[in-house]
Amino acid sequence: MALQYQDSIESEFLKAEPADSQAGMLAAMRTHASNIQPAPGPRSKGSWILSIRKALNRINQAQTIPGFVKLSESSSSFDTDLVDAVRAYKNHRKILGPGQTKVDTIIGRGTMGQIDFDLKALEGKPDPKPEGPKPLDIVVCITFGGVTAEGEEQGSSSLRARLEGAAHKSKQRDLMVIKFIGSHRPEKNPSVGIADRVVKERLARKGKTCVYGASVGGKNVLQVVGMLTERSIPMSYVGISDGAFFHDDAVAPPGLLSMSAKNLRIKAQTFRSDESVNFYTLIGVKAAPSTQRKGLIWTSDMKGEIHGPVNGFLINNDLTSTIAFGPSTAAAHDQAVFFGDPKHEERIKDILA
Fold first, then answer.
1. CATH number of 136-352
2. Cα radius of gyration (the chain)
3. For the chain, which residues score pLDDT lower than 50?
4. Which of 68, 117, 174, 311 is buried most deeply by CB count within 10 Å?
5. CA distances from 44 to 48, 84, 316 (A)
6. Apex CA 41: angle with CA 39 and CA 44, to 5°?
7. Cα separation of 270 and 226, whole Å?
């Protein structure tokens, strides 16, 4: 298209900007010597950058520029986000200088004139509907870490860095990562607090919800997703890595004809999730007589802790014969957790992208 050259600001939008901002943009309209270039180039920092950011956001609201990501309106620097936005805008409006076959990211006479022209064309038209709150994706991780921090919230910055890729950042979606140490003890169990926190956020903002956990945290995961389902909060992903359960968590006790650990099933409250994956190992799990219960129970040499397939999961992945485990039940449990957790994180990262 023909370049939109002009020697004055015509749009009311830009006329309402501060005088120094107008002067900076007007200079770019009038002469190539005053081109505004990406940092650290000439005129890459100044009040006119703030005005250009606001102007491009306003145009995008009305035109929906392909590949455009809403710009921060607090930075006065021509940083990479503005570079990407200018490139998207110039591709959208086909702003090419003489001899160019590919747009550049310089804001010069043609680009500045086109911005002003597009803003002028919007005058008299109703403002776009105000944007609602950005979607909020929530990831809950409940892990294990000994009794010293049992039930306590943990720092989540490193986990967030692993989960949030460039694709998620480009979607203008916020991400909340909640990480706790799990607990079997009622007075330390974090499940109710976590569920309440997720529900509070979900009432205000839509988004994806992913919950995963390991060992004792796996049992807490079942409690959390059950409570969320009761409150009509669906999950995008639920994952467990060798969840730590006990005999009372089993669907049924072992019978005289079903003493093999392969007959063990863990019960779970009904939950809603697009995907659900449980990694487990049956190493050390066995049926044994109990004088207290006057019959057989599921138990192990880890103080009675058992691991196994969980009802309601779309995928129950038995690792017993697929990876080399350590010499003890506890070592096998740790290795199953270390195998499963990265798999959950990898899938959650893909879901968020």
1. 3.40.50
2. 29
3. none
4. 68
5. 9, 14, 55
6. 60
7. 6
204-237 exposure pattern, b = at least 16 Cβ within 10 A, e = fewer: ebebbbbbbbbbbbbbbbbbbbbbbbeeebebbb
Give pLDDT, residue 129. Answer: 65
Q: Which residues contact 86 (CB under 8 A, 6 or more apart)?
A: 56, 105, 107, 111
pLDDT at 33: 93
| Of 184, 185, 179, nearest in space to 153 by CA | 179
Cβ neighbours around 164 below 10 Å, total: 18
What SS3 string covers the chain? CCCCCCCCCCCHHHHCCCHHHHHHHHHHHHCHHHCECCCCCCCCECHHHHHHHHHHHHHHHHHCCCCCCCCCCCCCECCHHHHHHHHHHHHHHCCCCCCCCCCCCCECHHHHHHHHHHHHHHCCCCCCCCCCCCCEEEEEEEECCCHHHCCCECCCHHHHHHHCCHHHHCCCCEEEEEEEECCCCCCCCCHHHHHHHHHHHHHHCCCCEEEEEECHHHHHHHHHHHHHHHCCCCEEEEEEECCCECHHHECCCCCCCCCCHHHCCECCCCCCEEEEEEEECCCCCEEEEECCCCEEEEECCCCCCECCCECCCCEEEECCCCCCCCCCHHHHHHHHHHHHHHHHHHHHHHHHC
| pLDDT for residue 305 | 95
Q: Which residues, 6 or more positions from 337, have their beta carbon under 8 angstroms from its beta carbon?
A: 144, 214, 215, 241, 242
Helix 47-63 with 19-30: angle, nearest 10 deg: 80
Count of positions (residues) in the chain: 353
What single-letter amino acid sits at 37? Q
pLDDT computed for residue 146 by the predictor = 67
Domain ranges of the chain: 12-122, 136-352
The CA distance from 28 to 107, in Å, is 7
**Cα distance between residue 76 and residue 112, in whole Å:** 17
